[in-house]
Design a protein that fits this description.
Largest sheet: 7 strands, parallel
Strand content: 15-25%
Radius of gyration: 20 Å
Number of strands: 15
CATH topology of one domain: Rossmann fold
Structural class: alpha/beta
Number of helices: 12
CATH architecture of one domain: 3-Layer(aba) Sandwich
Shape: globular
CATH superfamily of one domain: NAD(P)-binding Rossmann-like Domain
Distance between the termini: 42 Å
CATH class of one domain: Alpha Beta
């Protein structure tokens, strides 16, 4: 197949950096990054600084690097105001699509979330046939679903091929959300507190596996690829394929870090946790402080959520190369360096 010129939008972020690393590792010669903040990724990677809602800045980056394939990982993360999600996740993605079309880009790989079809109820083995919920779980997943729809709708327009990857429970080195949150519980001596009974299976995805899925999808968007028709215009769930009880990932991280659980675990029933969350949200609103416990957090920690990745295995030839336990080991190895050399 003809070599691509890659532009990774959000390439300075958690997932984007790993995608860039893999592209370079497999010998790609044309790799560029577009990010809101300047990052130094070495002499071979062109870095363009700008906002994805800035059509001129994005268009300039596409033209200068001669992008034929865009991998779009940028997003406003959960917890930010609704207007930020609409601006970045929806308007930003629409701008990526329009600018790609205007500049003859042939491929667009979009990073979505497994939660776009989640509405707070148990989901065991959910697959791509699941509809978007009538009542989205939060602004993040609502706007990601809207953006995903736009990406898929653009497939086949003026030669642009698109695909969306719904990543589940991403974690790993350079993580600024999940891993720091879990490790903070350890350093604060709170590992004995558990929300729910920990019988709910949850899907996690090690960051390198998530990055590999993006490269597999990009390759198969080429019209000459034998699996092109199975990939273009489609969505795929991506995970490690090893669903485990929610708290088991945290306990795996803690154990790898050398923590020994000596205190009896206090399991707060889901119903009780919801009541506590309501009170904490109220007092947080009353005093203008972020509550330490929310109904959203209780839902995430106590609900069954794992997906069927058969379609990704078949169409993308995706097979998680790094098992969950090895991912935990590599993550803690990285975390220890952040403790030795905090930024």
């Amino acid at each position: 197949m003809t070599p691509d010129s890659y532009l990774v939008i959000g390439g300075g972020g958690f997932l984007g950096r790993h995608i860039v690393d893999l592209l370079l590792a497999r010998g790609e010669l044309a790799v560029a990054v577009f990010d809101i903040a300047h990052v130094d990724l070495g002499p071979t990677v062109k870095v363009f600084t700008g906002d994805i809602v800035d059509e001129n800045a994005l268009g300039n980056a596409i033209r200068v690097c001669g992008a034929t394939c865009i991998i779009h990982t940028a997003a406003a993360l959960p917890g930010r105001p609704r207007q930020d999600h609409e601006k970045i996740n929806i308007q930003g993605t629409e701008n990526v699509i329009n600018t790609a079309l205007a500049n003859g880009v042939k491929k667009l790989v979009y990073t979505s979330s497994a939660s776009v079809v989640f509405e707070g109820k148990d989901q065991a083995g959910v697959n791509e046939s699941a509809p978007y919920p009538a009542r989205p779980l939060d602004d993040y997943n609502d706007t990601k679903a809207i953006a995903e729809t736009a990406v898929l709708r653009a497939n086949g327009t003026d030669g642009l091929e698109t695909v969306s990857l719904r990543i589940a429970g991403i974690f790993g080195p350079r993580d600024r959300l999940t891993v720091p949150g879990f490790m903070a519980l350890m350093t604060q001596g709170r590992t004995h507190i558990q929300l729910g009974d920990n019988t709910n299976l949850f899907d996690w995805t090690y960051i390198v596996n998530a990055a590999e899925a993006h490269l597999l999808a990009a390759d198969r968007l080429a019209p000459e690829h034998p699996k092109h028709a199975q990939v273009a215009g489609r969505v795929f769930f991506i995970s490690n394929g090893e669903p485990r009880p929610w708290w088991n990932l945290a306990r795996g991280l803690w154990k790898e870090a050398g923590h020994v659980q000596t205190r009896k675990v206090i399991a707060i029933p889901r119903s009780v946790a919801f009541v506590l969350a309501v009170f904490m949200e109220f007092f947080g609103w009353l005093f203008g402080k972020a509550p330490s416990l929310t109904r959203f957090r209780v839902t995430v920690c106590t609900t069954i959520r794992w997906c069927d990745i058969s379609n990704a295995r078949n169409a993308l030839d995706y097979g998680p190369s790094i098992p969950l336990d090895e991912g935990i080991r590599q993550t803690v190895e990285w975390w220890k360096t952040t403790q030795s050399h905090p930024k």
